[in-house]
Design a protein that fits this description.
Blueprint lengths: L11 E2 L3 H8 L4 H27 L17 E5 L9 E5 L8 H21 L11 E5 L8 E3 L4 E3 L14 H15 L7 H23 L9 E2 L14 E2 L8 E2 L3 E2 L15 H4 L5 H14 L7 H10 L9 H16 L3 H12 L6
Parallel strand pairs: 2-4, 4-6
Antiparallel strand pairs: 1-5, 2-3, 5-6, 7-8, 9-10
Helix pairs in contact: 1-2, 3-4, 3-5, 4-5, 5-7, 7-10, 8-9, 9-10
Length: 356
């Protein structure tokens, strides 16, 4: 059960700080400069978010005249500045414009809303029709995208390592899922609960992409951020749920550090205790369960994970073992002693997470 009685938003980025740290130390100014500026901007926004949390963020009201079960999207343009939200450039129902970044952001918000409603009967990320807001063209050569507790924000990338952050639809879904977690289990953003927070976002980000493409578990690539890395980078994505640790291996970017099992669990004080690193373990467990069950991943495995996230029993400081045990409980409650329970249990066994 969550213990704080309300959501406490955290500042969540798609590119982990340890990746940007490495880039910031590169000898090429074209690589190091944008990474350093991104780290500085992220630190500023993270501090601002903490102060807002202490003071109290303004309540976000449902749009006047908004219809339940329908999205209410607003896309703003920061014009390469850092003032949020920026200038409104597209509202709900407006026709696409000439800016492909704006159009992708609008479509990604819509795809996230559609998956949540169609697969889980959830009306927006808070379950009560919360408007979906996003800002594009944030800062110059900004190498990240983030959820700040109120809105999505997208950088354009530096063109050297990262491209436009609206390109991968699962990046959009990932960040918005941090909003779902914020309004439900509110997992602490450190250590194992933080890695679960990141993993849940990867899981539902991947489901959103699979739903939009009409893919089965077997057809999906299970990559997070495919299309985001620039041509010079030796890699395919930021993370792989199918094979954690294999998404990239590059002279500049480094090697994907994610473990696939508890045998290689990384103990570190960096990255909030390795939240983007050790998330590979529960990511891999979900992938194994979904593939074992076959069909569309959101129809069975996704239902189990959603039930755990929203069921009220998941503690904010939950460990992998506690989360795994709840998935077994949820699978049994929804499906009985059937294939779903067996697949989920076997998946956790395969990644070395105890379920009892």
């Amino acid at each position: 059960m969550t213990t704080n009685g309300g959501s406490q938003p955290v500042f969540c980025t798609i590119v982990p700080p340890h990746v940007l740290d490495r880039l910031a130390r590169h000898t090429d100014p074209a690589v190091a400069g944008p990474a350093r500026r991104t780290l500085q901007r992220d630190a500023f926004e993270r501090t601002r978010r903490r102060l807002t949390t202490v003071v109290g963020a303004p309540a976000v009201a449902a749009p006047a005249g908004g219809e339940p079960g329908r999205p209410h999207r607003t896309i703003s343009d920061a014009g390469h500045g850092t003032e949020l939200p920026g200038e409104k450039v597209r509202g709900e129902g407006d026709e696409p414009g000439q800016d492909a970044t704006v159009n992708r952001a609008y479509a990604g918000l819509g795809a996230t809303f559609e998956l949540l409603l169609a697969a889980f009967a959830r009306d927006s990320i808070d379950g009560a029709g919360l408007p979906l807001d996003a800002t594009v063209h944030y800062d110059r050569e900004y190498n990240n995208a983030f959820w700040d507790g109120e809105r999505m924000v997208f950088g354009d990338g530096d063109g050297e390592i990262f491209l436009d952050f609206t390109i991968p639809i699962d990046v959009i879904g990932h960040e918005l899922t941090h909003g779902v977690t914020q309004h439900t289990a509110n997992l602490t953003y450190f250590g194992q609960p933080g890695a679960l927070n990141e993993s849940v976002s990867d899981v539902f980000g991947s489901l959103i992409k699979q739903y939009a493409l009409g893919q089965t578990a077997a057809e999906a690539d299970w990559l997070i951020g495919a299309g985001l890395l620039a041509p010079r980078v030796t890699g395919v994505a930021l993370r792989s749920m199918k094979a954690p640790g294999t998404a990239y291996d590059d002279d500049v970017l480094g090697k994907d550090p994610q473990p696939a099992t508890m045998d290689d669990y990384v103990r570190t004080g960096r990255d909030n205790g390795g939240v983007h690193i050790n998330s590979g373990i529960p990511n891999h467990a979900f992938h194994l369960a979904a593939v074992a069950l076959g069909g569309h991943s959101w129809e069975r495995a996704g239902q189990v994970w959603y039930d755990v996230l929203t069921g009220g029993e998941l503690r904010e400081d939950a460990s992998f073992t506690e989360f795994a045990a709840l998935t077994l409980k949820a699978a049994r409650a929804r499906y009985g002693d059937a294939a779903e329970l067996e697949a989920v249990g076997k998946a956790w066994d395969q990644v070395g997470v105890r379920t009892a």
